[in-house]
Write a structure and sequence with these properties.
The chain is of the alpha/beta class and about 260 residues long. It contains 8 helices and 6 strands. The longest helix is centred in the C-terminal third of the chain and has 16 residues. The model has no long low-confidence stretch (mean pLDDT about 90). Helix 1 runs parallel beside helix 8. The chain has 2 domains: about 220 residues, Rossmann fold (3-Layer(aba) Sandwich); about 35 residues, no CATH class. Strands 1, 2, 3, 4, 5 and 6 form a 6-stranded parallel sheet that branches. This is NAD(P)H-dependent oxidoreductase.
């Protein structure tokens, strides 16, 4: 497979960077081809401005429409185009970052904001005129794995932990970005307690990462309900006979709650 590994950490000697290097080596040992976008090392600009789309400074910016026009006209900045080309090239995508304030570092969020523009990752229509999203889109056929580290110990990210379950914390990324754009999203790998890691803990984390990477092409993805799977009405609301009387994020996974 062709694998794009996007890493977001400002310290090249960090656990994140060390694991990314080890993960790349593991993938290459398996015969995969790996390209890395190290956002801090690249000096990635995370800020969306009208300049990205050739917008005049005194012109009101409508980000979606302006980005779509620039995308269709081939007018996006070279750094954005390069990342979009990497995504088209990739059979699998690994996003790796430390969990900061329950989300991605700003530089990675900015990578998504600038790269996943309208016309490329959303606002795309199929031959039938219907919008491609939630299980269908530019990342259709792409496997996606999120690898994140956090300082809190594992129990606080469990089903009853005070921090919330990791699947819920990452739902905007897993479901609202990656699955929205069509990817097959694998269960995330959370390396909890990273601030307290000993050398033995780090070694176990490397083995856990290698194990997950060995299943990158074969592990079952999260069972998110696709938009066109017959589970939603015309307003994209889950049909009443599915998970009756229930709400929340879990209802959008077919394996979480009984139909």
């Amino acid at each position: 497979m062709n694998v794009l590994w996007v890493i977001s950490h400002p310290e090249p000697r960090s656990l994140t960077a060390s694991l990314a290097a080890d993960g790349r080596a593991a993938l290459e040992e398996q015969g995969h081809v790996v390209r890395v976008s190290d956002l801090y090392a690249m000096g990635w600009n995370p800020v969306v401005t009208g300049a990205d789309y050739g917008q005049a400074p005194d012109e009101r910016l409508h980000v979606g429409a302006a980005s779509q026009r620039a995308y269709r006209a081939g007018g996006l900045p070279a750094d954005v185009v390069a990342e979009q080309e990497k995504l088209r090239w990739a059979d699998a995508l690994v996003l790796q970052f430390p969990l900061w304030w329950f989300g991605m570092p700003a530089i990675l969020k900015g990578w998504v904001d600038r790269v996943f523009v309208e016309g490329f990752a959303y606002g795309v229509r199929g031959d039938d005129g219907r919008t491609r999203r939630y299980g269908d889109g530019v990342l259709t056929g792409t496997r996606a794995l999120v690898v994140t580290s956090a300082g809190g110990p594992p129990p606080v990210f469990g089903p009853r932990g005070i921090n919330g379950h990791v699947d819920d914390l990452l739902f905007p990324l897993l479901h609202g970005t990656l699955f929205y754009a069509g990817a097959q999203v694998l269960p995330p790998l959370l390396l909890a307690g990273a601030d307290r890691f000993t050398d033995e803990d780090a070694a176990r984390a490397r083995e856990e990462l290698r194990e997950r990477l060995a299943g990158l092409a074969t592990d079952a993805p999260l069972a998110f309900r696709p938009q066109r799977g017959g589970d939603y009405d015309e307003h994209l609301v889950l049909l009443p006979h599915l998970a009756p009387g229930r709400g929340g994020l879990a209802v959008h996974r077919g394996d979480h709650l009984p139909s």
